[in-house]
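Hi R.,

Here are the chain sequences for the assembly we discussed:
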Amino acid sequence: MNDIDTEHPLDLESKRVSVKEPEKRYDMQGEMPDDKRVQTAMRGFVRDFGYIAATYMESCIHCGACAHACHFHEASGDPRHTPIWKLEPFKQAYKREAGPLAFFYKALNLKHKVTVEELQEWQELIYDTCTMCGRCTLICPMSIDIATLVGMARHGMFQAGLVPHELWAVAERAEREGSPLGATPKVFEDRIEWMGDEHEVEMHVNEDKADVLVTMSSIEIQKYPESMAAMAKVLNHMGLSWTFRTDGYEATNFGMLSGNSAWQKDMSMKMINAAIDCGAKLLILPECGHAYGALRWSGANMYGKPLPFEVKHISEFLAEGLQSGQIKVNRVERSVTYHDPCQVSRRGGATEAPRVVLDALGADLHEMEGAGLMNWCCGGGGGVLTIHRADDLRHKMFRIKMDQVEATGAEELLTACSNCRQNFDDNQEYHHWDKTAHSLLDLVADNLAE
Amino acid sequence: MAKDHDKEQTLGEALRQQGVSRRGFLKFCAATASLMAMPPSMVPAIAKALDKARRPSVIYLSFQECTGCAESLTRSHSPTLESLMFNAISLDYQETLQAAAGTAAETALHDAMKENHGKYLVLVDGSIPLKDDGVYSTIAGKTNLQILKEAAEGAAAVVAVGTCSSFGGIPKANPNPTGAVSVSELMKSGHIATKPLINVSGCPPIPVVITGVLAHYLTFGEVPALDVHGRPKAFFGETIHDRCYRRPFYDQGKFAKTFDDEGARSGWCLYELGCKGPTTYNACATTKWNGGVSFPVESGHGCLGCSEPNFWDKGSFYAPLSTGHWGTAEGIAAAAAAGAAIGIGAAAMSRRHQDTIAKEE
Amino acid sequence: MDLLTFARGPALQWSVAIFFLGVLWRLFGVFLLRRKKDYSRPRSTHLWRGAIKGLIVHLWPYKEFRPKVVQNYILGYIFHIGLAIVVFFFVPHILFIKNIIGVGWGGLPNTFIYITGAVTVAALVAMLVKRISNPVTRLLSNFDDYFSWFVTIAPVVTGLMAVAHFGARYEHLLAIHILSFELLLVWFPFSKLMHTFFFVVSRGTTGALFERRGTSA
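And here is the predicted structure of the full complex:
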């Protein structure tokens, strides 16, 4: 058993699965003298600047509008939670090291050298209070893609050993044993079998050849295993040739979330190789948010060339199946509302799909104000949900979501991201709310017309 | 010129001798007062002072000049004021007007200076060349500088008539081959004695401006209120632009674009045709020329700014005041190319830096 | 050399040269950095359409954001448009530009320009007050923000002062006005004022990204 298992044990019982709340936090990894740590972070930052990131760094006019799109800032009122401020050390690295005026900045010390204390202070801003939801980009008059830049900043932070305790621990697990939450290939297989039995559905595991490769997120495997059954039900209903693969199943990418590019690649390549190996034409991503961004939009770049198969989020897959008639469903006469997972909708572009699904189900959809592109983040993505230190603000900002949902008057709240779901579950408990988010996939699977 | 006994005459006596009535004399005083922007209550004081004033000795020295200033003064169309002044003073030396020539003229000059030492007025027109020991303008074997130095020694005050003596004028224009300087520069550098100095600039100055200044000096025995350039505020306190009768057109945005277009013929503002009115201080727009007949703008040509220092070196007379008077497009292109080069270099260095970091990983 | 001749002469030459040098330096220095190829399958290949949409959509804030940001947008437009009117429609300015590029155009009456200038100054002052009093912008703001504000408002204020003959002789006020513009030119390439150029690329890039991903924006 690895030290990590004893030092950072998992807590799979609480409403949100993560590492157990640590008695002592280890928010700095590795033994490094302070100036080396700073230097490593700066070099990590500088490495990433292409002309697009550089343009964004040059374009900010300090208008402060981004603060008003960010749920963390709106909940805390703390100006430090202004999105662009989260990038301040990153911007300093750019100006001093990579920008066209770097010579002036260094020679005249126009932006002071970042200190290790500042980097530690910024760890909270880059990890705890940013879900990379991208809402700030919509309000920014210069359209600066702050979410992507925060993701880039995390690279330097990881290299300098400045990742929050829990996030680092789950990422390390994921790289080492294939899942951040203990859903190793063995556990995965066991639970597939369990779900197959319990829901009386035929499971396909480790087929040599299949048209469709199905991936899952550890959150579902560990906490919402019925999703695996739901997947199987739908695909069997469609009569498609599909498989789970124990050599490539984990759709979450904690390499990406913690900022380790090498691990991000490893994690993506597992699924890519599995898909290629079984000759899949389609890889389905489960109800997970960042998994979509990781594979649909970044996967090919990890691979180094276009992927030889299509990638779809389960919600897109369901929408297409319903539209083409391959999936037939019974009607559900229920008033519902839908929470758009940021990484699938705003950042991923698959906004329409769930509406198509709900429409086919005949659900009475009451859209939230700002539904779709403008939707408020649930507050748990980007790794935030794993960090105990971040709980207070995450609970505080959740009021925005509760108000949004209550205003619709709908009976049921649906979504297509299991991380959002566990955030809703956790907040339901904390706020004693009467609602939580349910799975869109489950709703379809439960109402298939035979 | 004037006879000895005439010097004992008061100004009032001299005028009466010439048949100027009391009424005419008072009219002259009133005109002087209003020219100097003084209230009518000053008229009796002026009259009293002038009446008793001694006819002062005036020495008019001409250096690198075109004689336009003297011409302006003497060819005026309103004889009353100007000729009155000339008759009221004892003009003891003036090369254009005097009958004497050669050594006789020089003797008259030195006699006048000796007899009236400390009390005579020196009027100067033309700039003074300094280059090559001042050989570019000499009279009777003496350089202009030497002449002026001597004359300033015993002067009560000096009046620089015209832009050349006030500021250097046309001879001073780039490249200033003769090393021309103004009277005030000579005083500042110590080449000549420092005396009360009035600059009456203009190329040439308006006749009544000169006579008004002289009248003031005779009346009050002191130099009038001067602006930063040593010019009497009464005449040089406002810009042409601020007193121009075409100002409403400037404000409305109506400008003549050529000298004979619709706008020009409608009397619109001449800013686009290079009028320097906004930065030129003079009395042209109010007092006008030729006895109040007209002034350049009224005749359809923009102000050249001739009463300002270096007006010849401030760019084209026909380029609007708001245009740059500047260098070359090639210089700008060179700067742009340099910028692009530096930028390319910076990007290259940044990329190399990134490669180094990547290699170390 | 008197101040006005200096301002219209060598100062202008140098400041324009530095402006061009700096702008090209900064633009080349940024746009020649690495570009990363994106191998993911795009939802749309009409990236230019997305870029243009990105440029246009941000001319006005989305409905959900308006309560919090529309005031800033309005003030921002007032002073940008006010500046544009004063710079491009005051006849002496038009003649200055015509002298450089060879083309001029009709101007507006001076009174209209003066009023616009005054409104522009008021808007700029209001923006400074907001910047200082808002905790977010107070945290974000640095020397660049304040000095850029100063070099933007200085030409308008000194221009109005020159017109009003307020505070010094006209030719000095005019010289100071021209020098203040030259200060703006010299500061421009090294400051946030470069957003003039960068906004096109940053908005366009994000717009293209959204188009590529099919984000409905």
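Residues 84 and 208 of chain C are 29 Å apart (CA to CA). Chain C touches chain B through 46 residues (CB under 8 Å).

Let me know if anything looks off.

Best,
T.
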